[in-house]
Each structure stands twice: as structure tokens, then as C-alpha cells.
Design a protein that fits this description.
124 residues; mainly beta; single chain; four-stranded antiparallel β-sheet; 0% helix; 10 strands; 44% strand
Length: 124
Amino acid sequence: EVTLVESGGGLIQPGGSLRLSCAASGFAFSRYAMGWVRQAPGKDLEWVSHINSAGDDTAYGYFVKGRFTISRDNVKNTVSLQLNNLQTEDTAMYYCAKCDSPRTGYRCNDRRYWGQGTQVTVSS
């Protein structure tokens, strides 16, 4: 059974940083691309970032503007998202997603393979 458990969210002031982590189990982690998606109350889902199975290709949403970095550890079966210079508009639930392909950003929309999410709240 695919299990994804996110951690690292919290309340942070504007300009601050957080590191989100996702622990994966139940599948051959190193064979699949992964992603992070977020949803703010009343807003549509936004794909934040993707990373391929090998960890050498990444993609980011237009709103990231160099502030976030995705990475993965195929030994520890984890994928992380470093969030820097957080702004109030980054407030959202952040979900870790397993993609059904090794390629960056391909076939990541099956919500059965998303975690439960970790809340990021940016407020002064």
C-alpha cells in the first residue's frame, strides 16, 4: 500500500523558511517521480514542484520564483521541499504526491497516491 506522510509545516512569519518532508513507503520509491501540490482555502490546487525519479530534473510553479527547492533521497525514501522567503500567499495545505512515471511532472494527479498534507501558515 502506498503511504505518504508529510511533516514540517507550521506557522511562520513572512520572510521565514520551512522545510517540508515526505516519507514514502509501500512502493519502489526510486522508480517514480514525485511532486508537491498545495491548496489554499477557496482556491484551486496549485502544483508547486516536481522531481524525476533520479532526482536530477526538477520543475516549479511560476509563483515559486526561485524561493523553493525540491530534493529527494532515494536511500531514505524521502522527498523534501525547502521553502524560503515565505509570503502570506503561500499559506496552504501542502501535499506530497506520487507520480505514475519516472518523468518529471507526468501522471501525478491520482489523489489516491497523495499524502494527508501538512499545513503551512504564513502570518505576522
